[in-house]
Queue: 2 jobs
Job 1
Amino acid sequence: MQQFSDSKIGDLLKKLGVFGTTSIVTPNTILINNVDDKLYDLCRLLIEELDAYYSTSIGVDERPLNGSFAVYHVFVADKLGLYILVRLEASPSHPIVKSITPIIPGADWAEREVMDMIGVKFAGHPRPYRLILPYDWPSNIYPLRKDFDYNDKYPIKDKIDKVIHGSTEYVVDKEVLEEEYTAVPIGPYHPALHEPEYFEVYVDGEKIVDARYKGFFIHRGIEKIAETRLTYDQVPFIAERICGICGFTHSTAYCLAVENAAGINVPERANYIRSILLEIERIHSHLLWMGVAFHLLGYDTGFMIMWRIREKIMDLAEELTGNRKTYGANIVGGIRKRFDISEEKIPYIKRLLNSVKEEYLKYIDKIVSMTEIRKRTREVGILTHEDAKKYSVLGPHARASGINTDVRKYRPYAAYSEVDFKVPVRDEGDVYARIIVRHEEVLESISIISQLLDNLPKTPLRAEFDFIPEKRIGIGCTEAPRGEDLHFVITGYGNKVYRWRPRAPSYNNLASVPLMLRGEKLADAPIIIASIDPCFSCTDHVVVIDIKTGRRRKLVSR
Amino acid sequence: MSLIIQLFFSAIFILLISSIISLCFRGKTSVLISSILSAFSCLLIVLGSLLVLVKNTVVMMNIPLRYMVPGLNSLFGEFSICIDSLSGFFSLIIGLVGFVASIYGYKYMITLYESEHLGFYSFNYSMFLLSMCLTVIVSDLFWFIVFWELMTLSSQFLVSFEKEKKQAVWAGYKYFVITKAGAELLIIGSLIAIIHYSGMNTSYLAIRLNPYDPISVLLLSLFFTGLSIKAALVPFHTWLPDAHPEAPSHVSALLSGVMIKVPVYMMMRTFYMFTKPTIYWGLIIATIGAVTLFVGTLYALMQTDSKRLLAYHSVGQMGYIILALGASIYLFAEKEYALGIIALFASLYHLINHSLFKSTLFLTAGSVIYATGSRDLNKLGGLSKYMPLTSLSALIASLSISGIPPFNGFISKWAIYCSSFMSGGIILFYGIIAMFISGVTTASFVKYYTTIFSRPANRLPRNNQPAKIPISMDVPQLLLASLCVLFGILPIIPYRLIKGILIDITMSYKVPQDTNIINIGLGFVSFNGIGTNYPLLIAILLISISSAIYALTITKKEIKYDTWTCGTFIEARKIHYPAKSYYSDFEEAFHYFYNTCNALYTVFVKKIPAKILTSCKKLSEVIEEGAHMCLIGLAILILIIILLMV
Amino acid sequence: MFKLLYILINLFGLLLLAPILDGLERSIKAKLQNRRGPSLLQTWYDLIKLFKKNPGSTGTPRFLVRYSIYLSFTTLLIACIIMPSIIPYSYSFIGDIIVLVYLLISSKIFLILGSISSGNPYSLVGSSREVSLSMLAELIFAEIISVFAITNNSLLIEELFPAKIFKPSLICSLILLFFIGYVESTRLPFELGEAEPELSGGIILEYTGLDLAFAYYSVLIRRIIYSTILINIIIPGNVFIHPILYLGCLFLLTIIYSSIEASFGRLRIDSALSILNKAVLIGGGIVVAAVLGL
């Protein structure tokens, strides 16, 4: 900890008196222990003085390791390139810690998830209701505890607890809301949504008064499976299946986290190839999103055009990896051997990229300047700069509200420190700004890939290492197409992870949707929900139980 | 002839007796007596009017009163009655709606107003019917005004019947004051007419005005203003949306369905009989009609109280009638007799149609109040399973007022459009506005019907247990609703009722014989060279083809399911859609109009009278000093005037 | 006797043509989006598939929700009988052009009554939008009919189809009719009642199987009726030329409408109402011109 003692952060910690209990876990991560009642001051000072933002919270059952439950709050000091972990401990007999939601609204969901999964209660949380687990899950069984086996079966509760909660305060009194206004259910089955989620939107005629959200319909038990059944090298494959669109990002972030924890240096060529594949995925995701956005605005011709251009990107991916999506290229320490890019392919790739760029530019200018598209997206779904900071939104959503943040630029990973690119930021905060930000990112990605292809170094593809040390904490962060994707790993015994927490960017972004919906028209609700590019598969990956245990749930009940 | 007189006089006599007797009883008995006797006498009135209209006769009778009060001159000396086709038509409407409302009123009053001065109600109710009937059959200006004032007085007591409700008392008071002011204008106009034109003869036949004479312009303006205050034309309509909802529902039906038509009777007498039609008066009347229908209906669109919505629609639909009347006066003055006859036909047809469907609608609103005690459209819903017959009548009446073929509202609106579209000039624009407002009416009644009967409720008042509607309340509504259907499919029936009036007017204006424009058969109407309409065939095709299609689907088993809520469970009351959310975007698109009207209302109805009131207060303080002197002086002045005139 | 035959040919011809025209529209939209579209008969296949399914019912009262679709469909059939289409004869004594317009309006009102009765919030939002739009569309229609009445001195179908007197105001009102036919026939910028991504079906959400087939069919027939009104005013009424010209113009109109539809997104209700307000003002100007004799 000595090298920090003179810096800003050292001063801050000394002021609060926790300098002694802080330790460096990896070169870019510090861990602050024994915070107790200085928690609120610490959080406030971190946000104000270091310009850090709250990222997520993770609950870990550390009873086999040191006999207690632990909650880690992750703060990211973007400009210093530093991750700050604040660890709170809770004893098994009395598992209560203080909640930081009253001062950081963005921590709402993460703390409720810990309550559901690990069973630690947060004192002072304004809405301590169930978030992840379904309504009929028994109330004292916590799936992510180490004494819960991944294929345990439990009886369904008879009574169904039907309460929907949002993550923001009620603007209008709940009784008045239900009496005076009409609740329009958007989801779980709705043509505007790709994955099941539930927005209960209260309208007055056509105007939206309030919105409540319930998600987590597609839990698949990924974290539990990774902790109990899979080795380090098998987890990237399941990480890739967290999401259909941003799979490679998740597997890269996991590999980065483990490499961070174990201190492995990935060879250059592997970094370059990782970056190229990540950028291809970004272009693919943004083009898909634009098609969907135009479809929701009713402009089907634009939808067809964007998806036709997207086909070429998928051809490119197939040429490089053999798959149109879900490449399976990552492994801890580098890239798998068969995913090398040979010299003959490079001219073809460049030709393809050029044709994509031409066609894309030809159409997108015409579409974005159509009066109708502008009328329906300008000044619609505004998220102000202050609210964006309060809820810690990430990615293009934050960049469209004026927050200049990009993991590739400020905490570079893979080969991003070797290339030159701009970070597009706009400050209107409406749907139009989000379209323009993603449009510019597509152009930047094309330029990044060209730069990387020109300078591909010749090194091995995978790092050599003996073993991965145990009980080490590592954080891996990538810039997914939707924002900062953070993976928290605690390495474990027997070639397995002890705790793996993938936190997708949509987790933070979704909390801001009810804010954006208030005061807008119902006709704009689908495009506002879609404008944060929600990836519900990413968000909902957390553990429930294995669905195939013979439990049959009726989705509609009286 | 004497049969008609016998029918009318016995009706009048029975109504008089009913009002006096029911004062002597209390509670349920008085209501029973007045209901039965009023219903019977209204039936007699209907029969008498039908005889007048079918036989196309004029019945006149003079009862000299001189021998009762010796020394009185002709001013108060005679009680003369003249029942021609115009009077017969209006008394038919009075009798029909009165009959239905009297039967309906019995159960309604004894259940809802549990013995709150019901004797006083019965007295006023019979008086009201009596005075309305007499107003349209006398042929003497003085007696007309006497019965007009009596009509206003008795209906005011009926409006403010619920003495404990401040709103009702205030509404009754406002109604009385405003219409009394109108009556004052009528009195002044009559005085001028009597003194200046007819040489102290108050009989209708003696009044012949020259429309271009400045004094008669003044007189006609006074008459028209006084009558339009009572008929609730814009800008004098502000009493109606407050008064009609507060009255008991069958009284509202009488007020809206009949009482606001009596001024139209007098207008027709004035502009066709007392004077010749002129272009200016035609345009003025048509313009006021167009403004009324525009303002009234657009305001009705935003109401969420069932009876207030219906009251605003009464204002709007009166606009249709007045528009057609003005158009016909204009066309007669322009010597376009064919189109003028069509317009007059349309006006009278719409008048009787409006009585029918508006009364039905008010009676259905009354049934809803009877069952649930609520008028709030935001809370009601799904009542059709508790009161199927009421919802059927409401559906028929709503479709009629919207002008959906083949119901009666459609035929009269179609006739209005035919005459106004073909006449060119400003009347054409009024026709276009009328067609637009017909669409707004449709929207408003879709809202009325569906928020009460159709889509599920939030939480029904009275704990989700609406009371059952008794037969004596269901049958009158169905009767009127079936008349709506009948008048729509067989337009020859109302044509026979109106024909007498048209013949009278064409004969008095010496219309050339070859303008035989209206061609009516059993179930079709056509205007030569202008338009054609075959509602009977449309109705037959509609019912038969749609029933055939429905019958073909009987073989497939129908799947019954609950409303789709996107796969989640959500309580029914949460997805309830209140009435205030309907058409909110349309109201926003028209917010210029609404803001202007609200501003005008605030200035003219609230601020200026308040200023006048404060300045009057100051004046009255001054007068109170010498109050006694003033009163004596005023009394002497009046005596001098009477002696001079006599 | 022959007249009945002609009327039946007209009626069944229109019933047959309506889905084929929709298939044509879908193919053209597909070509404009650079993809292979469905075949011309695809809409017929869809309708037949739906006709074979069971109907469903919901709402209060259940009977009204189902029966109103049949009433709506029947009203459109009566409208088809009144006006000449393929063969220039019709039972025009049943009604004149005002009756025709009111039959179209009442078909929409029956559909709306049925859909509101189902109680679904999506249906209610969609119906509220649809009624707001059609109130203004009715005003524009009134302006168009008044121009016909003034220039041709009659409201009868025989006198107006085809129009005998052509004046500049009549031609301008035909352009307005072209626009209003587009707006009222559930085509894309104005397809607000059934907006699928926003309202997941809107007005026709609660209809399934057989009733949904009739709901779709009503939309298609309504489109053809609007086109027919426009075409009939222009083309001459000779028995031999009329069918050929009519069918040709119908296909031409369909191609034009679908090309316009392919290049637009969906409007929000306030923008749609403001566009219609502007059209009302333009219509008012045309009426003034007609009254002044232009």
Note: The domain at 2-123 of chain A is CATH 3.30.460.80 (Beta Polymerase; domain 2).
Job 2
Amino acid sequence: MNIAVCVKEVPSAASHRRLDPATGRLDRSGDSEPNPFDVHALEEAIRIREGGADVAEIVAVCMGPESAGRILTKALALGADRAVLVTDPALAGSDIAGTAYVLAAVLGKQDADLVVLGQQAADGDCYVMAAAVADHMRRPLVTQVAELKVEGQKLKAKRQAEHGYDLIEAPLPAVISVSDAINTPRLPSIKAIMGAKKKPLETLSAADLELDLARVGGDGARSVVRSVSPPPAKAGGVHIEDAGGDSAEKVVAILSEKGLI
Amino acid sequence: MAVLVHVHHDDGEFSANSLGVLAKAASLGGDVTAFVAGSDIDAAWAAALGGHGATRVLVADDPALSGGLSQPIVDAIEPHAREADAILFGAGVVSADVAAGLAARLGAGIACETTEFSSGDDGIVAIRPALGDTVMVESGFAAAPGVVLARANAFAPREEPSGSAPVERVEVSVSDWARSAVLSGREAAETGGVDITEADILVTVGRGLGGPENVHLVEALAKALGGEVAATRAVVDAGWVPYSMQVGQTGKTVSPKLYIACGVSGAIQHKVGMANAGTIIAINKDQNAPIFEFADVGVVGDALAILPKLTELVAARRG
């Protein structure tokens, strides 16, 4: 079987993230990294192979600016066999609907039995891409997977839900998103980092995928940012020093005053 | 404006997040249609959504909708969504999957993590906090319908619902691929089914508590207050407590009336997870801990020394 893993380029956790006030889009000029949830997705693909399943190929797929090629090189170092970058100025500013359309188009060409995404993007804090991609591809979906088993042409997943866990079975081909509880990603070895540069990294344009340009990019976005503003200010809090060891009494007095105990 | 509100339910209970969105939608006026999908749905039960703000209720009742999975619901709601100006969803795993699948199906825009919405001249407008809640982003839709997915606990249901709305059963057609995933069972969370997102009082363990041997101090205070124990990601990663207790993981945005953070520094993910809390009390030795910037009461001191005393005083007062 073949596994495709979607990897998004996000601003690194240490960088200062900001929205461009003119466009409402994320400023992507600073340091970037693979979306941490997607690293769990890639790790899971590698573990399926290491677990004895007959995995012919793991392909990492990314839609993003040209700079996102760096992210795919990291995915190759982590264990993907090849990578595909969809990049085109016409795609800049795509919204969730547009991005799902593009990802489904490129994934549809990868002959993947299993598509794996991280359950959310660290920059947008949205957790909807897997379900949107699955609908485009007309494939069964399991999101927020915390445990996964692939048995022949079927997957068994334990999915995090409000009440605990759902146990879900689905035939392949399927689309899943994984939680960060599913595994602990490995660090790539120096040898793997060196070897990554020799693995194939293909670049595709909107034309290569025969995309309908009315559905992508800033002009095709159905969701439109109207304004970006600072959050409402929070009133200053009460400050207590525990110097005299009487802070517990002070806290209880406040709780009592607020009717919380 | 005509809006369609998907109302999720589990084990015979409507989701509070869905009811909250329904109440908010009703407060804007106009036609508010509630959509309920399932099997063997009782008409009177569905009609009660009128008390929560629906002007009518569409019921999709089919065995294919019994499994509680999202994809059959997308098939069922799609024809009705096409007639709406906006389709609204409360937070939740299944609701989010339906919202996303539906947006893809319709080629519609989707607004996630919505904490406020209104109806403007050119359709629905949604506001969400973004980038670790450091900015508020207001979005509209270039074309109707728009799909709006709320943040957990962003909207409260009506406190005293009364009345009912007319119920209409709709035809359901679920494609084979959409019903190919099946729910084969359920498991309780490691904490014995305690849902920290529903708790009124949370006492949270942070790394500053030193080690798993001190978690019992937090448990004792939570017990004295009648609350639950939660934890930061660092503490969960270190294995002190199970993952289900983590504040800030997907869907685990908490909104207790009282939140007491013990030895929590206030990393950005944690801040996002607890942003909806009522009163936030932080106890931390480090006076520069970021959590003091958004706590209502900041106590600079050693949680290990303060907790037992606080527990004793609370227990005495609550009898």
Note: The two ends of chain B are 52 Å apart (CA to CA).
